[in-house]
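Duplicate of #3305? Posting structure anyway:
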């Protein structure tokens, strides 16, 4: 019926695999997030993208939930060419991090980092 107008996305298995891979990379890199400006810029790009699965707010190419994926600095837009700007992580472009197979979890230095301002 009207389902023919709904764009087909990745299978459930592919969505879970893709999300698990992205999550692993995100954690392995210390869970870095993009700035608020970059987050909004990414979501704006998705909003005008033909691959957006609007009802689920998922990317139609990878199946990831964009609310989360757009926030993670280690992710990239799967379109060719990518619609998101390259993020820099530890002096490297994010593309090199997406093939990182390390399971090492690194502590985030930005969260609650040692600040010279302690209780006064
Ligand atoms: S292809 Fe890129 S811009 Fe389009 S919905 Fe997916 S992540 Fe967003």
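Output from current build:
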């Amino acid at each position: 019926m009207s389902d023919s107008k709904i764009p087909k996305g990745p299978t459930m298995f592919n969505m879970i695999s893709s999300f698990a891979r992205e999550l692993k990379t995100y954690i392995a890199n210390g869970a870095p997030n993009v700035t608020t400006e970059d987050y909004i810029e990414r979501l704006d790009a998705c909003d005008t993208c033909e691959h957006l699965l609007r009802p689920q707010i998922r990317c139609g190419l990878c199946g990831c939930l964009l609310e989360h994926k757009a926030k993670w600095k280690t992710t990239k837009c799967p379109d060719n060419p990518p619609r998101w700007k390259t993020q820099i992580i530890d002096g490297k472009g994010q593309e090199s991090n997406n093939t990182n197979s390390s399971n090492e979890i690194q502590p985030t230095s930005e969260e609650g980092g040692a600040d010279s301002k302690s209780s006064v």
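Confirmed duplicate; merging threads. The first helix runs from residue 12 to 28. The chain has four helices and four strands.
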